[in-house]
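Section handout 9: paired folding examples.
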Amino acid sequence: MVWDEIVAFWLLLSLIPGDWLSQGLAFLLFRFFDILKPPPIRQVDARLKGGFGVMFDDLLAAAYALGCLMLWEAL
């Protein structure tokens, strides 16, 4: 992991419960979305250049992971 991923993952961790299961699932989901880059993450990654683009695609991956965790919690 590099700083952009660490910052995005810390943000994700600050928004979820502190138990180890939630944190582990958050990590797996974050890495899944960061590697897979589903739309619009791939498009953002291709269009935005420089540090902002690198950081923003990780923030989107964190948002996808958070959305999945929130959906899981709601069900």
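Moving on to protein 2 of 2.
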Amino acid sequence: MSDQSEPTEDERAVRDLLKRSLAADEENAPDLLAGVQRRIRIRSRGKFFADGWSTTQTRASYVLIGITTLLLVVLAYCVLSPIGMH
């Protein structure tokens, strides 16, 4: 007998049931983050999570700030460097 025997009908049924239940849990899982942040903000009277940066769900704002900072550094280097002073 080998350890890799074919699963029985019951084992396949249990495995399929488990896969369906785990997939349903991921799809129907509530998003608790916004509610928790709101509750902390209310209880702390705005001390935590009062700004919009820490509660936003998009990452595009961070990318935009990074690109803008990089462009400002390059602009400052070009303006302040002695390249055109010869």
